[in-house]
Amino acid sequence: MEYSSLDHLMIIILGFFVAFAPRYLPLLFFSKRQIPDWFNDWMKYVPISLFTALVVKGIFISSKYTLVTNGNLALIIGGLVVILIAYWTRSMAMSVIVGLVTVMILTMII
Amino acid sequence: MKRVKTEARWKETFKVAWPLCLSYTPIGLACGILLHAAGFNTLLTGLVSLVIFSGGAQFLIAQMLTVNAPILTIVLMLFFLELRYALLGSSLSKYLQGESHTSIFTFALSLNDENYAVNYLKFATDKNWTPNDARQVEHWSLLFWSVSNIIGSLIGSVLSINLTVVDFALTALFIYMIVMQVKSRLSLLICIFSGVLAAVCLIVTKSTLGLVASTLIASFTGFLTEELLVKKRPASALLQDIGSRKGGPIIEEIDKKESNIL
After folding, report:
1. Half-sphere exposure (CA, 13 Å, Cβ side) for B214?
2. Which of A49, A70, A98, A101 is most worth mutating to test chain B (most B CB atoms within 10 A of its CB)?
3. Out of the domains of life, which is the source (chain A) (predicted)?
4. Which residues of B touch A48 (CB under 8 A)?
5. Local confidence band at B3 (pLDDT 50, 70, 90 cut-offs)
6. pLDDT of residue B6
7. Per the confidence metrics, is the pTM higher than 0.80?
């Protein structure tokens, strides 16, 4: 299948709606109402759960949704390095840059 | 007088936003390069960065285009991927109570994972942080994201870079966010549980729907466990903090000063 620029535009327009609705509607709904305490307590765990899921997907899951057990050693070591740097420095820039350099060097060696 | 104050404010918000902007730049460049490789022209790459403004979604579009997926499938995948914003939006909404419709509308327009995390921490730790400041942080990140996407698209044909390495920038960013947010032993446990669960869900569903499912299950498990522990065993070791880390990127300077004194 060949896509035209019009197809790309269609993806962008439809994509905008499906991306915007989940950002807007809950925000609108809950900013006018009292949010129940249990909901806030629940939401507290959402970022950790989501980010962990994204990290696992990035390191251990292939684009065909199978478990990657081979060839991701550089990413695993890089991930551990980022954890240590983030823990000690608490600096976002340092964590990302050192992590990237680590992975860059490791992919060249391994 | 007023002008001086506003200027100070955008400098203030930029101070908060710049690490985020900096980490967006390589990812934005990579995203622009990938979109270019998938056939997107530079104008549309700029447009998609402005109106969708989601690294995950744009990487997904690039990936789906290279495997020749039908447009409706791509949009459906985008929907599932972006569904997580419902949770992010709801958790920020308590800080936007009483805001006007327009204000909430524009806030939602440029909300995404990373500026959410920055703003959430800022709202939670800084009493003077207003929705307006938060929106400015969003706009800084949107500006850097769109410009780096466009530049990425322009250099796409010239430069070839190792995409495994660039992809890792996104992962590193998320790892950093996790380290900043894991505070109690229970949250560390939930983090590990969520990781295993995500792998299982992704492999079972064979789609990014697995991310939605595992996020919902893991966060709800964390919430229920905490409720239960607080009620039945308030002295439980699980509820204790790990170390003395109290904040995120925002109160970094204060933390550093503290550690210097110590």
Report:
1. 33
2. A49
3. Bacteria
4. 178, 181-182, 187, 190-191, 194, 218-219, 222
5. very low
6. 55
7. no
